[in-house]
Design goal:
186 residues, alpha+beta, Aminopeptidase, 5 helices
């Protein structure tokens, strides 16, 4: 199995739709988790379909991006999803701007997992994919996600309506800033 990123506590690798669907449903079937996102599942079949779509999209793009499960190394339990994808404009057309995102099940909130997974994926995006910058787009009222962007030292760019047909707070981290922060805080 391909490993996308590994951190002290987490392992990030591609989805296995049929195997992972039950654990994914605990994330995307929870209204509190999906409050700020469009991905929602109300059945195991719907969840399998979503995961298959994500796997197929990554395969079709073939650019190293995707949405991946975040697993605890200690138990192999899936606690969330981390994404590195191209931001779509309102029409759905993909841009050349790359976005990082995260969704965690409620039991994993407040334990630093989103920041840890995001750091792993930022490293993957900057080192393996050689992206010049990575953005985050979050709902203005999603304060927990905004705090994660702050812990990642992402620069706030303000509000935009350019993506996902909704108003979002946009953040950016440039590769050079990430590299410099790694030199001083290994």
């Amino acid at each position: 199995m391909t490993i996308i990123a590994e951190t002290q506590r987490l392992l990030i690798r591609p989805w296995q739709p049929e195997t992972d669907a039950n654990q994914a449903l605990a994330i995307y079937g929870d209204r509190l988790v999906t409050h700020f996102i469009k991905t929602k599942a109300d059945s195991l079949e719907a969840q399998i379909s979503i995961l298959k779509r994500w796997v197929e999209q990554a395969k079709q793009l073939n650019n190293g991006t995707g949405l991946w499960p975040v697993r605890l190394k200690e138990t192999d339990a899936i606690i969330g999803t981390v994404a590195l994808i191209q931001l779509p404009i309102s029409s759905g057309k993909l841009t050349d701007t790359y976005e990082i995102g995260w969704h965690l099940k409620r039991a994993a909130w407040g334990q630093g997992y989103a920041t840890e997974a995001a750091k792993g994926i930022l490293g993957y995006g900057f080192k393996q994919l050689r992206l010049p910058a990575i953005h985050a787009a979050t709902h203005p009222h999603n304060l927990a996600s905004i705090r994660v962007t702050q812990r990642l030292n992402m620069q706030p760019l303000g509000r935009t309506n350019a993506y996902y047909d909704t108003e979002l707070e946009l953040f950016k981290l440039e590769a050079i800033a990430w590299l410099c922060s790694r030199r001083f805080n290994p």
